[in-house]
Amino acid sequence: MASPPTEPAFLDLDLQECQARFVALGGKAFHAKIARERVFAAGELDFESMTALPAGLRGRLSEQLPILTGTELGRTEASDGTTKLLIGFRGGDAVETVHIPSLKRDRGATLCVSSQAGCPVGCPFCASGKLGLSRNLTRGEIIEQYLRGRAIGELSRSVVMGVGEPLLNVENLVSALETVRTEMKLGARRITVSTVGFPDRLRRLASSKPHFQLAISLHTPDDEQRDRLVPAMAGTSVEEVLLAGDDWFEQTGREITYEYVLLGGENDSLGHAERLADRLRGRRAGVNLIPYNPIDEEPDGRPRPDHVEDFKQVLLDRGIVATVRWSRGMQSDAACGQLRLHAQS
Ligand code: SAH
Ligand code: SF4
Questions:
Q1: pTM of the model
Q2: Separation of alpha carbons 22 and 206, rounded Å
C-alpha cells in the first residue's frame, strides 16, 4: 500500500489549521477566512487573483500552500451529458470523478466521488478493486474532486460511489465532507455515502452529525453468496449487516437504501427476490436495483430488462420499496463499478 503525501496542502487544512498556517506565513487569521470563502464559495483556485490579500502573502501562499494538488489527466464526455474526470494525485495515483447533470438541466448535477485510490474489498464484479488498494485519499484530495466537479457545472447532489470503500477511509471522508457541507454549502441530506457496511465503522459514521444519507451494498440475501460477492466482509453475516443498518436508522432517523447489483444468472433469480423481501420485511429501508454494468474482466452478466422488472415486482408485491437504477455514463465507462484506479508510471 502506498503512503499518502505527508506535506499538507491548502485543502487538507480545516479552518483552525489554515489560520495557523497563514499566520506562520506572515498573514493574519482573517486572511485565511477570506481565502477559504474565495475558494469554497466562489470557486477561485488561484491565490494571486485574491486581491483582498496582501501581495506578499499571496506570493508565499502560491509557493508554499498549493490549493489543488492534482492534475486533470483526462476528461471524457458521454452523449448523455456525463463527464468523467481522471485526476492524477501526488505519488502517481489517479482516480475518477463523474459529473452527472440532472435530466432537467436547471436542477444541477450529481457528482460521484472517489474515496480511495483503489479498493481492498475485492468485489468480483467491480473494476475499482482489480488492482487492490494503493492508498487512502487525503481530506484535500476528496475536496478537490468537489471543486473540480463544480467547475464543470453546479452541484445539487453528491454520491460517494466512485473508486474505494468510504468506510475504510472514514476519518478523511468525514472531515472532507464537513467542508463540502459547511463551506461549499452542499447539505448532508444531499450527500449519499455508499458502503459495503462494516458494522463498527457504520457506527462511527452514525456518530458524525448532521447525518448523511446512507446506501449499503448488500447484493444478496444469502450468507455464502455474500462472502463471495463482498470478499473483505466474508464471515460477517447478512443479518449482522442488516442489524447494523437497523442501528443506523435508530440513531439517525435516516432510512437506508440497500443496493443490489443484479448479476445475471448469479443473484437475480426470483427466489433471491423473495428471500431478500423476507430479510427486509418490517425494516425501514428501500432497495435500489443496479443492473450489472459489464467490466472488461467480466463481459457477461448484464440482466435482461424484463427480468429486472420481474425481480422488482416481487419486492413491490411484498411491500418493499424498490427502484431500478439504469446507470448513466456507460458510453464513457463512467457508470457505477466501471471506475478504476489508474496507476501512473
Ligand atoms: N465501495 C462502495 C462504494 C463504491 S461502489 C460500495 O461498494 O458500496 C458503488 C456502487 O457501485 C456499489 O453499490 C457497487 O456494488 C456498485 N457496482 C460495483 N461494480 C458494479 C458494476 N460492474 N455494475 C453495476 N454496479 C456496480
Ligand atoms: Fe470496492 Fe465498492 Fe468496488 Fe466492492 S463495489 S470493490 S467495495 S468499490
A1: 0.95
A2: 33
